[in-house]
Structures are given as C-alpha cells and as structure tokens.
Predict the structure.
Amino acid sequence: MTVTERVVYLKGLINGMELDADKKEGRLWTAVISVMEELADAVVELQQQNAELAEELDDVYEELSAVEEEFLDEDEFDSDDLLYQVICPTCDEVIYMDDDMLAEGSTVCPACGEELEFDLSGLEDEEMVSEGNLDQMIAEESPEAVE
Ligand SMILES: [Zn+2]
C-alpha cells in the first residue's frame, strides 16, 4: 500500500466510527486525517521530484563521462601532436602531420603544392598508431607523389 492508500484506508475506518464532527473527538480525527492527507500528498510529490532529479542526474553523469572521454582523448592527442613527418619527394620539404591529416589519406605540400597521397594499408593496427610507430613506418615507405 502506498502512503496515500493507507491514509484513505484510515479515513474510511474513522468515518466508520460515525464520530460526531461537532464533538471534540470528531473534530480531532477530522483534523488528524486532514494533516495526514496533506503529508501524503507532499510525500508523493517529493517522491516524483526525487525520481525526476535522479533521472536528470543520470543524464548529467552520462554527459560528463562523454566529455571526460573526449577530453582525455584530446589530451592524449596533444601529447603526440605533429607526430608524423614525411618528406616531399618533389622538393624535399619536411612536412609534419597529425592523425587527422593522415586519416585523410593525402595532403598538399606547403612548399611546392604537390599533392601527396599515403598508402596506409597494412598500417591499420591502431595500437601501433597510438604508440607512435607510424612515423617510423612512413619514413621507411615515403609517400609517392601523385600527378
Ligand atoms: Zn614539395
């Protein structure tokens, strides 16, 4: 039984006693029931608000952990910013690249404007990428210029 149901049940019991509402006892019980009804309403309202707050809090926690993850990812990324270096086969310019540029598969040499494409097949092991071994592998396999 909920609090509200119990109050309703009590009210029924007291009504069944057929107390005279004008006499002292009758007035007392009427007042008691009235206070209990108010309390039951307040409890129900608080329970609802509490449930809503708990739900909102869950959402906040979820968003917070998503932001945290993103932040941590970025942090990691910052620590090995401009990790990769390639040498332009046309003008020998040293070009520094980050993960995003690498992921695009090609870039334009800032010195001569040559478009450089990278073949990343065989370099898909993400662990190797995150450990920063990719620069070595790229250095060994310099990118080929595309006409
Ligand atoms: Zn170049």
